[in-house]
Amino acid sequence: MPPRLFRRGPVVIFIFGTSAFGGAAYRFFKPSESLHPHDFTPYTLIDKQRVSSTSAIFTLRHSHNIATSSSLREVWKRSIWSLQIKQPQLQIARAYTPLPPEPHINAEDGEDDQVEDIRLLIRQEQGGEMSTYLHRLPEMSTIELRGPHVECEIPEDVTDVVFLAGGTGIAPAMQVAQVLGRRSGSRMSLLWANRRREECVGGVGDVVSSTTNGAQSRRGWRNLFGLIGQSAVPPPSPTSQSPPPLSNIPTKEKGLIVQELEALQAKAQTSSKANLQVQYFVDEENTFIQPSDVATRLQTSNSTDPSSHRKLIFVSGPEGFIDYWAGKKVWSGGREVQGPLGGALSRMDIAGWKVVKL
Ligand SMILES: Cc1cc2nc3c(=O)[nH]c(=O)nc-3n(C[C@H](O)[C@H](O)[C@H](O)COP(=O)(O)OP(=O)(O)OC[C@H]3O[C@@H](n4cnc5c(N)ncnc54)[C@H](O)[C@@H]3O)c2cc1C
């Protein structure tokens, strides 16, 4: 059994139908929507932008230019969602989490006839079947998608979120930021941890971490995250150079995801007076999320009603990261469910907050 990198759902294996009925059924039910939850739809890989030595943003466009459906627009407004990609030779599918439309495009509010691209942040895992296949695909290749699959709905009355993200766990965090950015007066604190600075070049953050260097912090979830990280493709030419200075970095020298986070912050602020704070933690710089960092963000929540579920803590990322902060998810009735709260959050005072493991 290969180790699972994410605990957000089972690896899906599907069987191709080869019967005449299968072909007829496909023709009969051929989806006219931009994305279909059960049938795969062809998209074209129109762009691949490198974020780091191991990750890239893939931009996919509907191969027949079908406009984004109104139902998908609704999903964007209130959900964390994923889709599946099919690997045609191996007959496997894997889940990926679309990034919000580029901040200068109001795609989720778009016109009914608007064709919108789907963007995915995909990390190449060493020996990973799907991620290696995708990273090797040239532009203009066809990639088949199905979805949306809603991982979690964010109820209308949720206005306070603390989001702990590890690695590509940033994708659902950006979806939540996009949802809350529509809600006047909402507040979101995002703590994003990476093993390497290359994933978040120029990410300075809005708040100074309570603890950074030191042996104690090294014993945090660094090793847990490191275990996962060992399976990632190593950088092509590792160096012992110091990371870039973290202040006054021009936009063009900032990483793509950092730029998008800053754009999400600006957009939320101007459109609905929502507040998004981002803090970056980098393993190789000995900065690690500490419980005190989380506690500080919980205290700055503006909601005073402890009985409501208006305040959510999300934990998203590699398995070790989720285990460390919130405990393991468990299997029940053939599906993965939240399981009891464990980990560091279970030892903190989080009264009034509900924890969601992604
Ligand atoms: C809801 C959800 C959303 C997700 N969103 C994203 C996203 O936005 N971006 C993203 O990058 N990922 C995302 N993932 C993870 C993604 O679905 C894949 O799991 C990931 O890309 C790895 O798939 P793979 O086929 O490349 O690796 P796999 O082939 O599944 O291998 C995974 C790891 O196991 C190792 N391995 C494989 N076989 C063995 C073996 N026999 N023995 C030992 N080790 C082995 C591989 O070397 C590799 O490191 C998401 C997952 C879920 C559930």
UniProtKB/TrEMBL annotation:
- Obligatory cofactor(s): FAD
Sorted alphabetically, which SUPFAM superfamilies does this protein's record hold? Ferredoxin reductase-like, C-terminal NADP-linked domain (SSF52343), Riboflavin synthase domain-like (SSF63380)
Q: Where is the FAD-binding FR-type domain?
A: 38-155
Q: What Gene3D superfamilies does UniProt report for this protein, alphabetically?
A: Nucleotide-binding domain of ferredoxin-NADP reductase (FNR) module, Translation factors
Q: Where does FAD bind?
A: 94, 96, 121, 130-131
Q: Native species of this protein?
A: Periconia macrospinosa
Name the protein family: Belongs to the flavoprotein pyridine nucleotide cytochrome reductase family.
Cited InterPro entries: CBR-like, Cbr1-like_FAD-bd_dom, FAD-bd_FR_type, FNR_nucleotide-bd, Riboflavin_synthase-like_b-brl
The keyword Membrane appears for this protein: yes
Superkingdom as given in the UniProt entry? Eukaryota
Please state what the protein is called.
Answer: FAD-binding FR-type domain-containing protein
Transmembrane stretches, by residue range? none
Q: Do you know which Pfam families this protein is assigned to?
A: FAD_binding_6
What keywords sit in the KW lines? FAD, Flavoprotein, Membrane, Oxidoreductase
Query: Does Flavoprotein appear among the keywords?
Result: yes
| PANTHER family found in the cross-reference section | CYTOCHROME C MITOCHONDRIAL IMPORT FACTOR CYC2, NADH-CYTOCHROME B5 REDUCTASE
- One GO molecular-function annotation for this sequence? oxidoreductase activity
Recorded GO cellular component terms are: membrane; mitochondrion
Localization terms from the record = Membrane
Assign the protein's first listed, main location to one coarse class.
membrane
